[in-house]
Every structure is written in structure tokens, then in C-alpha cells.
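Our example copied in:
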Amino acid sequence: MKAVADKQIILVVDDTPANIEVAHHTLKDTYIVKIATSGAKALNLAKVLPQPDLILLDVMMPEMDGYEVCIGLKSDPSTSDIPIIFLTGKIDAQDETRGLELGAIDYIHKPFSPLVVQARVRTHLALREAREQLADEKRKVDRILDNILPAPAVAEIKLTGGVIPRRFENVAVLFSDLVGFTNYCDQQPAEEVVRELANLFVTFESCARRHGLEKIKTMGDAFLATAGLLEPVDDALHAAVNCALAISEVAKRSGRGWQVRSGIHIGPVMAGIVGEERYQFDVWGDTVNVASRLTGAASPGGVGLTEPTSTSLRGFAISPRGAVELKGKGSVGMVEVTGIVKNAAVL
């Protein structure tokens, strides 16, 4: 918004030299003043960069009057946000009403007081700057929400002010956990640990997006994502397994010697916003608990599933693990997916 030397630009639109001289003299010490002596010139100058921060517009001009200029400015997306103050000798109430209805922010009668013009200009420029700051803050908040919440949850918050917890069926829940990361943390500076973990989670997020999963959150060195929760996916289980294998591969290629173990379970979950002071979209339920327990029981590089869940999988290398004890579930038949079968069609 600021122009050269931090001076704001005022465009004065008037075809009378005496009026132009008075307006210029009133504003020149504080602002950069540009002059347009016709409506057509005003429309062109308003688009020239740097654009004016405010326009003082006369009504009575030949060929194109001020109302027509205002309509042209407001209908053009490149100039529609520029504040317009009518500065005119038309003093009837209906004239003023028309100008304000067309989008002007103020209407000043001629002959005018220089002090009044200066005050009105100063006030409206301050208001515009405040609106731009609020818009910038809103964009920052939107970026933060986009980073911490799934896109459909952000859309619901903007529409209704919250996300109503609800039950979702047939959701594949994926946990991925770094093996040996605690030992790595004990041996490295905190700054390096945070940087490496952040970079790794960025690649995990990329894997999730590529396979149609939604990142829910990170917990220390663990990563939680879902398939088929807020966004539809053709085969949630296959998508989650493919994502888990991709995550394991990118961790292996990191050069840090890291391995990932993952657990996946599919079924109903509850999901929504928890907490009041800090938004956190979360999922909970037995499906989530089983996926977490399977992660703890999986081998480094493996993707743990229950035997019944794995029966629908095709195109993967699957190794039986037999019966394992899962906290809260007792003895459960478990398998591990260790890779993709070459030359097999995988969804």
C-alpha cells in the first residue's frame, strides 16, 4: 500500500483547474497527489502501479461523470478495493445517496474546508490500512488452520464455528512410529533433532497426500493418518498399506538409519475437535486403539494388521505372525505386510 518514501498516493479526479489546484495544495505536503482531468484518464491511472491508495472524485465532468467512473472502478477487480470519496458541488441528498450506494465511502460538498478533507482522507486511509491488516491476520490464521486440521474440518469450522464429533464407518487408521528415535534424541543436539524430525514428517505428510490419506496429528516420533474419514477413497485399507510402505521407504532413505514400524486397522471411529483453548482434530475408538497396539507389536519395517483385516489385501508380501497379545484385546492373530509383490496389480 505504501508508495515511495512511505507516502500514500491520492488520485484527484476533476476537470476544473481551480478545483485541482485547491485539492493539490491541501494534500501535497502529506501525500503524493496524482491528477486526472477526465473520467477515462482516472480509470487508466487507477490501474497504474503503484495504484492510488484513495481517490477524490468529482461528479460533474464531461463525457463520463463521476458516478460512471465509480461504477467502472468498482466493477474492475484490480481497482474495486480503492476507497473513493466524492468531492463535488452536487449537494442534494439524492445525489449523495446515489454516490454512497455506488460504493463510495464518503461524500464531501464543495466548497470544502481543507481541514475537513484532510481529516476525512486521513481517517479513511487509516481504516483501509486496518482492514488490510485484519485481512492479513485472517490469512495467517487460515494458514495455521490448514496446517493443523484436515481441509474439510477447516471448511466446517468456517461455516459453523466448530466441528461436530460424529461417527465414521470403514475408516483405515494408520500409525507409524520411528524405531530407535529416543536413542537418537539422547545423542544429538535438540535443534538437530527437531529439524530432522520436522523434515521427516514433511515427507510422511507427502506420502499421505499421495495415497489419499489425511494426516491427523503427530505425537512425538509417531505419525497418525486416516483413509476414508473426511475425504472419500476407493479402497481405504489398500491406500493405508501403500502409504505405510511408502513412509517406511522414505525413512530408510533418509540416511539416518531410521526404520519405521506401522500398524493399520479398519472400522468405525469417532472424530471431531477436542479441547477449547487449542483446536485439535482427533480420532478415537476401538479401531484407533487396535491400530496403535499393532504398531507396537510390528517389526521394524513391517506393517502390522490383524489376520481378518488382511484377508482382503492383494498384491502385497504378507508374513504371518501368529497370535500376539494386544493390550485390551487379548490374543489376536496378526500378520505383517513387508512389501509389494512385483508384477502384481496393487490398488
The chain has a mean pLDDT of 89. The first strand starts at residue 9 and ends at 13. DSSP finds eleven helices and 13 strands in the chain. Residues 57 and 86 are 5 Å apart (CA to CA).
